[in-house]
Design a protein that fits this description.
It is a single chain. By secondary structure, the protein is of the alpha/beta class. The longest helix has 19 residues. About 45% of the residues lie in helices and about 10% in strands. The protein is globular and about 50 Å long. Strand 1, helix 1 and strand 2 form a beta-alpha-beta unit. The protein contains eight helices and five strands, in the order E-H-E-H-E-H-H-E-H-E-H-H-H. Its cofactor is Zn(2+). It catalyses: 7-carboxy-7-carbaguanine + NH4(+) + 2 ATP = 7-cyano-7-carbaguanine + 2 AMP + 2 diphosphate + 2 H(+). Keywords: ATP-binding, Ligase, Metal-binding, Nucleotide-binding, Queuosine biosynthesis, Zinc. This is 7-cyano-7-deazaguanine synthase. It holds the Pfam family QueC.
């Protein structure tokens, strides 16, 4: 992998930024792609732009506004509140087919720029039940991409089997803990760094960070 190119699916959030640093360590060349789907906070795209510029990686922004039309949800509509799912249901932030479309378009872009590797921050351990974050979905789509373009892509998911505390640990191992903490946007209310502290994304992020910092201070194994 050290001699090959990777394309990182990049939102400017904690997970995708950690994946960016992972890719920079593991590949000779790295580019990132961000999808503009009319998300609630345009600041997300600006944040991604800034990080890409600071890390000196080529940044592609693809217009995916059709997704906004097809799947109104709390990430694309100010009048839909951010709510966790009830009785095992999906939260209001779920966008049907989002990762299916994002990774499919990432595959097309990867073929154009000569990247054999696609990196995404999906995870089965700390997630809200999104079906398109599951390992089985990624493996299935990887086969589909390869068949559709007759090209040997590999989709990498460095965070698939780790929780948020372990994701912070990985960022620290990559020398990017403070950068990820201060520069990324995870908050559903559009507040960079530690966020609002109240939305589900901020609570998960903060809990993971506190768990990691406690383990680092006490020497306890995560």
């Amino acid at each position: 992998m050290k001699d090959e190119k990777a394309l990182v699916v990049f939102s400017g959030g904690q997970d995708s930024t950690t994946c960016l640093f992972w890719a920079l360590k593991n590949f000779k060349a790295v580019e990132v792609v961000t999808f503009d789907y009319g998300q609630r906070h345009a600041l997300e795209i600006e944040c991604a732009k800034k990080i890409a510029e600071e890390q000196n990686v080529r940044h592609h922004i693809l217009n995916m506004e059709l997704l906004n039309q097809l799947a109104p949800n709390a990430l694309t509509r100010d009048d839909i509140p951010v709510e966790e799912g009830e009785k095992g249901g999906l939260p209001s932030t779920f966008v049907p087919g989002r990762n299916l479309l994002f990774l499919s378009f990432a595959g097309v872009l990867a073929s154009q720029i000569g990247a054999k590797h696609i990196v995404t921050g999906v995870c089965e351990t700390d997630f809200s039940g999104y079906p398109d974050c599951r390992d089985i979905f990624i493996k299935s789509l990887n086969v589909t991409l390869n068949l559709s373009m007759d090209s040997p892509f590999v989709i990498h998911t460095p965070l698939m089997w780790i929780d948020k505390a372990e994701t912070w640990a990985l960022a620290d191992e990559l020398g990017a803990f403070e950068y990820v903490r201060e520069k990324t946007l995870t908050c559903y209310n559009g507040i960079i760094a530690d966020g609002c502290g109240d939305c589900p994304a901020c609570k998960l992020r903060l809990q993971g960070m506190e768990t990691y910092l406690y383990s680092k201070e006490t020497g306890e194994v995560l």
